[in-house]
Amino acid sequence: MCVGSDDLPRLAIEGGQPVRPTLLPYGHQLVDESDIRAVVDVLRSDWLTTGPTIAAFEEAVADYVGARYAVAFSSGTAALHASAFAAGLGPEDEAITTPLTFCATANCVLYQGATPVFADITEDTLVVDPSEVSERITPQTRALIPVDYGGQPADLKALIALAEDHGLTVIEDACHALGAEIEGRRVGSLCHMTVFSFHPVKHITTGEGGMVVTEDAELAHKLRLFRSHGVDRNTEVRERMGAWVYQMQALGYNYRLTDLASALGLSQMKKLDDNLARRHEIARRYDAAFAELPEVDVQGEVPSTRSARHLYVILLRLERLRVGRREVFDALRAENIGVNVHYIPVHLHPYYRTRFGYQGGEYPVAEGIYERLLTLPLFPSMTDEDAETVIQGVRKVCESYSRE
Ligand SMILES: *Cc1c(COP(=O)(O)O)cnc(C)c1O
Predict the structure, then answer these.
(1) Is the minimum distance from the CB of 105 to ligand 1 under 6 angstroms?
(2) Is-same-fold flag (12-28+272-401; 33-269)?
(3) Model confidence, pTM
(4) Interval 145-151 mean pLDDT
(5) What distance in angstroms lies between residue 131's CA and the mean position of ligand 1's atoms?
(6) Which CATH topology does 33-269 take?
(7) CA 53 – ligand 1 centroid, Å
(8) Annotated catalytic residue 157
(9) Cα(17)–Cα(20) distance, rounded to whole angstroms?
(10) Which CATH class is domain 12-28+272-401?
(11) What is the pLDDT of residue 325?
């Protein structure tokens, strides 16, 4: 970009006009009148929680992803915790995950008293590198927890093959990836357990909520037990011992999703395909624009996959810029582009540093990527004009700060 700095519009952070008048967030829920009616109907019904709507919501998600069982939870984090329990993780065990994720992915291992082990990511796709995972498998390894970062499915074929060789359980953290596909099959039909989140920034929302899907009846049973105090309401026992009898079989929690929330989720499922299509439209617009911007790279794809396009991240080419990510971030925020950063690598958080002695430098690819990452606004109710202001803002800031 050989534009003399005199020709460039002044950055908002330096007192110029922002590219848009109001802040565009990086994500936002899409709730319409039919969603509201669905919730109100449940409010007028006999069941506010653990009634018929939760089962209907579970069935809708299971059918959509092509899984046999689905168990809803009060959050994606609770769903991850339950998956770690169902996988049998305990104090002697290790589970391998990516450092480039929300801390909940690794924390669920700690909740069970087990040890999270990180494996570095692949530089272009930003998902965990199977060869790095393979090097970290020990006799203590019991589970792999890949993350479909940004909606891009992890290299699950390679990871499932590794898991089969070593007898490991694969818990896919698909909190970004409802509706993503691998070779035409939806995420949720491939791993032992797949976890979704229904936080408002995710593809569908229940306010707070999550779900685990599985093909395995035994895992589904353990997930249900864990969701409700470890209590079993086995009909055989009730017939034998009395209709009031319930038995606590394991230490569980109250991780139930309400029927109110399930009604919202069930209604949102009807709009999931439109939501995904719109995300793809916006992402294609971004792809086309950023292919021509030498200061940024975009996330690469794992072959034969279709991303669910939860996050659109750009990677700054710092060697082409006069400033770092911090300055680009601040300049874009001043332009009213609500950029974000996903994520600070988990091992660099103070808790992990203190507990496990991480000092930085352990996962050079993830740490290097983190220095370059920015998440741009991407959500289905964005207009084409919104997307154009994002492109305009990124271009303006990159050209202003370009070395050329
Ligand atoms: C959102 C998210 C979670 C946690 O989900 P909550 O529903 O917020 O508890 C876990 N992992 C990843 C990768 C997420 O993005």
Answers:
(1) yes
(2) no
(3) 0.96
(4) 98
(5) 25
(6) Aspartate Aminotransferase; domain 2 (3.40.640)
(7) 23
(8) no
(9) 8
(10) alpha beta
(11) 97
